[in-house]
Amino acid sequence: MAARQTIPEPSKTRSKTTCRIQTCHRRTVTSEHKFCSAHMNVLTDTSDHFESTCKLLSTRCDGEYTSIIELSKRTTSYKSISDDFIRGWLKKNAEGVRVESIFEISHPKSIIADHDIYRKIVEQDGNFVEQGLAEGNERLLYHGTDQSCHITFNPKDTKFCGNKNNCAMCGLMMNSFDREFIGRNRRGHKFQRLGSGCKLTGV
């Protein structure tokens, strides 16, 4: 796991930036942690479960960072995602399947804006909302990959390895999926059972 820290009480100094939680547009209460008062109170109340943010320089946005925040096990988001993952596990006889931790990836707002535009374009073409689906047919899916750094396991580790050790996890967060690697895994084995594309599953 990444390094833990105690979140201080919100200061009285207000900044002009918005909360780092992607769906929140309220102003931050501190320049250090970049959370609005509502989310700051939640994080303070659950400080024993709160994971410090870890920065990864975005290759697409100069001066902006991708960061991760560990979700508290007491939040509804953690329970919802954990239950969905376990429920969708295909090998029903598998033993010891459990969720160790869940991290929210917070991308630069310019990347989020690009994705919002893309989602609206997909929605216009497919009219998924009318079919009772999420806008743009957005779904919660899972992708298994390797990692070389110990950002999610070592409490003393506070930085991404930045893909220096060919870390697949950092590479995905920095550059998304690379189509050049379609059809082969890290061991060099070639496979392409379902054709060219990025495959994700319900788990």
How would you explain this protein's 3D organization?
This protein has 203 residues and is of the alpha+beta class. It has four helices and three strands. The protein has a three-stranded antiparallel beta sheet with strand order 1-2-3, with helices on one face. The N terminus is likely disordered.
Overview features:
203 residues; alpha+beta; three-stranded antiparallel sheet; 3 strands; 23% helix; globular
Strands, total number: 3
Portion of residues in helices? 10-25%
Q: Into which percentage range does the β-strand content fall?
A: 5-15%
State the oligomer. Answer: single chain
- Cα Rg: 19 Å
What is the structure about, briefly put?
The protein is 23% helix and 7% strand.
Helices and strands in order:
Blueprint: H1 37-45, E1 54-57, E2 65-70, H2 76-87, E3 103-106, H3 109-126, H4 168-175
Antiparallel strand pairs: 1-2, 2-3
